[in-house]
Amino acid sequence: MKILKFGGSSVGTVDSIRSVVEIVKKEKQQNHQIILVASAISGMTNLLTKMSEEASLGKFNEKDLENFQHTHFEIVKTLIEIADQNPTLTKLKLLMNELEDLLQGVEILKELSLQTKDLIVSFGERCSVLLLAKVLDQEVGNAISVNASDYILTDNHFGHANVYEEITYHNIQQLVQLHQNKLLVVTGFIAGNTEGRVTTLGRGGSDYTAALFGAALNAEEVEIWTDVNGMMTADPRLVKKAFSLDSLSYTEAMELSYFGAKVIYPPTMSPAFKLKIPIVIKNTFQPDFKGTRIQFHSEPTAYPIKGISSINNVALINVKGSGLIGKLGFSGRLFSLLAQHQINIILITQSSSEHSITLAIHLDEIEKAKKLIEEEFVLEIKAKWLEPIEVEENLGIIAIVGENMKQTIGVSGKLFYALGRNGINVRAIAQGSSEYNISVVINEKDVSKALNAVHDAFFNHLKKTIHVFNVGVGNIGSTFLNQLEKQKDFLANNNDIEIKLIGLSNSKKMMFNENGISFSDWKNALDDSKIDANLDQFIEQMKQLNLPNCVFVDNTASAEVPKYYKRIFEHNISVVTCNKIANSSSYESYKELKNTARKYGIDFLYETNVGAGLPIISVLKDLRMSGDEILKVEAILSGTISYIFNHFKGEKTFAEVVKEAQELGYTEPDPRDDLSGIDFMRKMLILARDNGYQVEAEDVIIDTILPKSCLEAKSVSDFYQALELENDFFEKIKKQAESEQKVIRYIGVLENGKITISLELVDAQHPFYSLSGSDNIISFTTERYKERPLVVKGPGAGAEVTAAGVFADLVNISSIR
Ligand code: ADP
Ligand code: ASP
Ligand code: MG
Q1: Which of 225, 173, 164 is nearest to 38 (CA)?
Q2: How far, in Å, CA of 203 to CA of 164, rounded?
Q3: Which residues lie near ion ligand 3 (Cβ < 5 Å)?
Q4: What are the residues whose beta carbons fall under 8 Å from the beta carbon of 32, sequence distance 6 or more?
């Protein structure tokens, strides 16, 4: 004997019912004895609830009833042969009339008891089963509908009744005895009390009905047919990367469903557990998929947890007081008070000092709970043994579940790291003593982000998704995006990283796409965007989207963008930047950014601030972290100036060489930013600060290359003119170098916290003599590298290498490692 339960979506449409028919036919072909349990058509229980509540307010809408009727009639008209339609339509119509009478009664009385509500919602299952049985009778034969209210006996807790198992099992056995060769199609969810009134088993209760039938008949299996591929690692509507689980123990399934995995109703596990009857969750729309088997033992998997679930609409109630809590009998009084009034406590935490107890309760019940506690402990509150009761709303819970958790070290560390990195504030924590679950209470708005971040952290064979918000699509920005396009498959296949570009802005427009902006078509998409660029709103949108593992990439040279970094860090979003301005403005703001990034535990990476893609910042950091002491740093860090002096040979004027460098993209838009030494100065400043020195731009001694007239020219073209006029000045330096067999080098030195940048003529013995093209070179003389300094040399400018450096920083963000 097998029990097959079909959920609301499985009986909701013509196609899904056809699928059900196929599944049943297959079972019959294999001579399996089966009983079907069915839910109301999806949405109908909600509709019935709404109609009853509105009726009690005198606002009953006839259209809703028409809609209810229409949904059922349409299925009959499509699936049942014309000759047979009338009897079914008549039976349905009788039920509709009864329902209408009830609703009108509620409307007149303006009163809706839980008892009446149960009766009204029972029409969902009564109607669905009626038509499903008729279709199966026609397609398979011998099917009859059964109203479970006559067999499942409960107490009087309307809305959530408790089942008297023994008598129920007896009734079910008799029912089956009576109809041995019939295909029974039973209403899920509904039951009856000892007086014959309809009760219900709680929302989602059809699963439980199936388990009760399973237990009564000692079935070999209870199958829960639904609209997903079994129980998954998380709700697939909230976590796109959720995947199906092969098996779960009853306890694991229980914990996951208790904390929100709606795919199975928690009480379902109990009758099955007692008789060790397996429950198999299957997909009506993909019947061949094997689904999830819920059984006695937990099978180990490659992961420490089985899944993550979540609940919204949670509130916390804090009961505090040094005078009472921890005293014998207090907790007992508190908990039995809430139990008596049927208020479900989702989770309890108690501080170790025992001065406070925090309870998580469903939002709908929080006011009632607060009132009850205040009334019960009115004297204690007056005497100040207890503080006034506090309530916090707008919360949610996420829970990680798995029996193997207890054998694995670091599970909670992983959970809290993922939450912390993403700026998710934890309001309360509970770990069951069984160690099958850890649940945390967080802000409701963070639930989806938390689920995804934690899912990424635990199921690490899946690709980690990095959500990128890129500002600046000039030379470096567009090269960076092209590189992402080229590398995305490699990253996905070799590094298990999926990069999604979510937000993009240039100085004119911005755009967002939560599903990812195409790397190949971003240009057109941005051109077509209707949203004007606005950094403030860009950051706000980034915050509102509230996605996990976000990185803000600043590919601009703008002084405006860095002003927002602090705010970005405060939203727990890492920053990768090639923009030097943030780190080279005042020391105070440099320090503040560093401290803020540290405080929020996120990354601030700016390798390309010095020497483009060359590993300079990271080498300096590694040297210092490993305890080395930096004695002296000598560097040529202006790729532009290197290029210019390396090409200032023969007939070309100095201005011509500068222009050439600009055309090749080696200079800043205004070449004076390079030639004035400011850009170089910024890099030296960043190096000095990262080396622990508190230095300001004014402290740097710069021997500027440019004559005053060039520096003072109003525009870039005026500057070029002035530069031509000053050609003699540069010719003189060139001649002198040639006559002394030396080369011109612009060298920065950092020693004892002092920075100097000056033009020098160096001979062939100098390590900087042989520098070619636009290369940078940096030499670190340290305690460890004293005799022969550690030298890093290579191309230090150009969009390709800079963009590659930004790219490297992006994949080095520690949240993805
Ligand atoms: P039915 O109407 O068949 O009873 P439900 O809507 O009650 O179906 O339950 C199925 C739904 O449960 C799925 O569509 C899915 O969105 C949701 N769900 C939540 N958590 C999970 C999970 N961990 N695995 C699978 N489905 C889940
Ligand atoms: N129809 C009921 C509900 O929507 C029972 C169920 O679907 O299991 O809650
Ligand atoms: Mg369900």
Answers
A1: 225
A2: 19
A3: 7, 204
A4: 2
Sorted by sequence, the CB contacts under 8 Å of residue 652 that are 6+ apart come out as 660
> What pTM did the predictor assign?
0.82
Phi, psi of 376 (to 5 degrees): -65, -40
CB atoms inside a 10 Å sphere around CB 412:
15
Which pLDDT value is given to residue 326? 64
Alpha helices in 57-81 (DSSP H): 62-79
Low-confidence ranges of the chain (pLDDT < 50): 817
Tally Cβ neighbours within 10 Å of residue 538: 23
Q: Is there a contact between 640 and 667 (Cβ–Cβ < 8 Å)?
A: yes
- 405 CB neighbour count, 10 Å cutoff: 23
pLDDT, position 62: 93
Report how far apart, in Å, the C-alpha atoms of 472 and of each of 476, 516, 781 are. Answer: 8, 17, 36
Closest CA to 757 of 614, 632, 635: 635
Ligand 1 atom with minimal separation from the 234 CA: 23
| β-strands 292-295, 247-249 pairing | parallel
Whether 683 is catalytic: yes
pLDDT at 120: 98
**Tally of CB atoms within 10 A around 752:** 7
3-class DSSP state for residue 5? strand
Q: How remote is the CA of residue 312 from the centroid of ligand 2, in Å? A: 19
Strand pairing class (509-512; 531-532): antiparallel
Backbone angles phi, psi at 4, to 5 degrees: -115, 120
Amino acid 353: pLDDT: 66
Cβ-Cβ contacts under 8 Å for 670 (sequence gap 6 or more) = 716, 719
Cα 20 to Cα 27, 30, 248, distances in angstroms: 11, 16, 25
Residue 135's pLDDT is 97
Beta-strand ranges (E) seen in 230-324 are 247-249, 279-283, 292-295, 307-320
Res 739: pLDDT: 94
Pair 466, 500: CB distance under 8 Å: yes
**Ligand 2, residues 127, 203, 225: which to mutate, most atoms within 8 A of Cβ?**
203
The whole-angstrom separation of Cα 452 and Cα 234 is 9
Return the number of other C-beta atoms located less than 10 Å from residue 296's C-beta: 12
Distance CA 165, CA 152 (A): 8
Q: Is 39 a pocket residue for ligand 2 (Cβ < 6 Å)? A: yes
